[in-house]
Fold this protein.
Amino acid sequence: QVQLVESGGGLVQAGGSLRLSCVASGVNFRLAAMGWYRQAPGKQRELVAGITTVGTTNYADSVQGRFTTSRDYAKNTMYLQMNSLKPEDTAVYYCNTLTSRGPTLSWGRGTQVTVSS
């Protein structure tokens, strides 16, 4: 059974840092490009970071230089290091695959990130 479990969110002041984790089970993690997505209240879910099977990363302009994603194949886990957080980063963060067709797996519950000003 495919399962994505995100964790690591919380409440942090502007300028602070958080590290999110995503554990993927039931997925051939080595064959999947993965992405971090977020959904703020009243907004559509958006892609903020992606990482390919060979470790190439890309980021949305809004997080470039502040967020870093990585993956550990041995643990089937992906990470998102978020630094210099801003109130506009407040959202529920999710992980999923990253394909030309968009995300392909059922969404997990996500993890809430709240940045206070």
In short: DSSP finds no helices and ten strands in the chain. The radius of gyration is 13 Å.
